[in-house]
Amino acid sequence: MLKVAKFGGSSLADAVQFRKAAEIVKSDSTRRYVVASAPGKRDSHDEKVTDLLLQCYYLAKEKKNIDEIFERICSRYRDIIAGLGLDYSLEEDFSSIKTAVLHRVGRHYVASRGEYLNAKILAKYLGFAFIDAEECIFFDEKNRFIPDKTEETMRSILSLHEYAVIPGFYGINTEGSIRTFSRGGSDITGSIVAAAAGADIYENWTDVSGMLMADPRIIKDPLPIPEITYRELRELSYMGATVLHEDAIFPVRKAGIPINIRNTNAPDAPGTMIVPKATTNEVETIITGVAGKKGITAIHVEKDMMNSEVGFGRKVLEVLENHNVPFEHLPSGIDTMSVLVTSKSIEECKGAITAEMVKAVNPDSITLVENLALIAVVGRGMVNTEGTAARVFTALAKENVNIRMIDQGSSEINIIVAVEEKNYEKTINTIYNEFIK
Ligand code: ASP
C-alpha cells in the first residue's frame, strides 16, 4: 500500500496545523510522499502567502518598496519554524528570493516560493527528503504541461527516496524558468505525484470533511458525500461545486487511482472517496448531489419545419463560434432550438449575435431569455431508479417553481433544469428536501 498525501494551505497555515498534518503522515507509514501547499489563511481576515508574494511581485514591478510585505512573509515562516521547535533557518532563502523579486524575476517564480519554503520546513520536520518540483515537473516552450516527461522523471526520482516531501503548484519550462499551474494548482501536483508513484490512493487533506451534497450557504448542514464517481464529480464541479482543482482529476483518473478528500482538523472523518467506478450504484439517497449556477441566458431560435433544414444547428452555432462564445447546453424541440450560454460571454456581442443569426438561418423568431439559473441533480443512483425526474418536477411544481427548460444527459446520471434566477435557492432547497428529508 502506498499513499500520496497533499496538504492544502489551511492545513499548513501555522505551526499548530503543521503538527496536525505531521501527525497524520506519521500515523500511517504508507503515507510516503507528501505534497505541500503554501501557508494559507489562519482565519478569515488573514492573507495567503501566495497572495503576499504576488503583491511583492507587483510592487517591485512598479519599483515600489516591498520591505513591509516581504517581512510579513518571512515572519510567517519564522513563526512556523519556531512553533515547531525546529533548529532550522530559511534566512538564506529569504534573502535570495528577495533579491530575485527586486530584480523583477518572473511572476511564476515569485508565486511558487510559498510552496517551496513550506515544503522545505515540512520535510525537515518529518525527517523526509525534499524533492524540488523543478527537478521533475515540466512545461514546454509554450508553458504547456508535459505529462510523459514529467511522469518518467518523477518516477525515477521518487524511486530514490522512500519518504519525501514535494512542493505543490509549480515546475520548470524548457527555458529553465519556473512555471506555476493556475491557482489552487497544488492539487494537480499531488495528482501527478500519485500517478507517478503508482499510489493506491491520493489523499487530499483540506479543511472540510469531504464534499457536501449541496452548497452549505443554501442548505443548512448538508449531508456529506461518502463516495462519488469521477463522472458525477465532473457534473457537479461544472456547476461550481468544487473541492479540488479541475485539472487535478486527469493524472489520477488515467491511472485509476481514487482520491480521498479528508479534513486535517477532523482526521477520523472518512471524507469523500472520488472513484473511477463506484462500489455500488444503490445510493441510499438516490441522488449524489445537487448544484447550480446563475448568470445564464437562453437564445431561443424558432422556425417552422426547422427539423428538415439541413445545417440549421451548425449555422446557429457558427455564429457563436465566430464570437468565441462557448455554449453550455443545447435543449431542442422540433421547430425550436435553444442555446444556453453564460450571460457574461455574450455581454458585449448580444446584438451582433442576434443579427447574425437572423441572417444565417432566417428564423421566424429569436428571443433572448436572460437571468436564468441552471441546476443539476446528479447521481448514478438515478439510472436504476424509476421516477426520479417525476419527483424533481412534482416537487418543484408544488413550490410553484416554473421550469423553463429541462435537459437530461444520455448517461442518465444528471437532470438539468433551468429556472429563473430568483428561484435558484428555492429550487436547490426543494430538490434537496425531496430526496434527503
Ligand atoms: N498556493 C497556491 C494558491 O494559493 C496553490 C495552492 O494552494 O494550491 O493558489
Low-confidence stretches: none
User: Could you say which small molecules are bound to this protein?
Assistant: aspartic acid
Distance between the termini: 39 Å
Helical coverage, percent range: 25-40%
Secondary-structure arrangement, i.e. CATH architecture of the largest domain: 3-Layer(aba) Sandwich
Mean pLDDT across residues: 94
Q: With helices defined by DSSP (H or I, 4 residues minimum), what is the helix count?
A: 14
Question: Radius of gyration over alpha carbons?
Answer: 25 Å
Q: Could you give the order of the helices and strands?
A: EHEHHHHEEHEEEHEEHHEEEHEHHEHEEH
Principal-axis shape: globular
- The CATH topology of the largest domain is Carbamate kinase
Please specify the SSE layout and strand pairing:
Blueprint: E1 3-7, H1 15-26, E2 31-36, H2 49-61, H3 67-83, H4 91-102, H5 107-126, E3 129-130, E4 138-139, H6 147-158, E5 164-167, E6 170-173, E7 178-180, H7 186-197, E8 201-206, E9 227-229, H8 230-238, H9 249-255, E10 259-263, E11 272-275, E12 289-302, H10 312-322, E13 336-342, H11 343-346, H12 350-361, E14 365-378, H13 388-398, E15 403-408, E16 414-420, H14 424-436
Structural features, described:
About 40% of the residues lie in helices and about 20% in strands. Strand 10 (about 260-265) and strand 11 form a beta hairpin. It has 2 domains: about 5-275, 3-Layer(aba) Sandwich (Carbamate kinase); about 290-435, 2-Layer Sandwich (VC0802-like). The protein has an 8-stranded mixed β-sheet, with helices on both faces. By secondary structure, the protein is α/β, with parallel strands linked by helices. The structure holds aspartic acid (ASP). Aspartic acid binds near residues 48, 50, 183, 184 and 187.
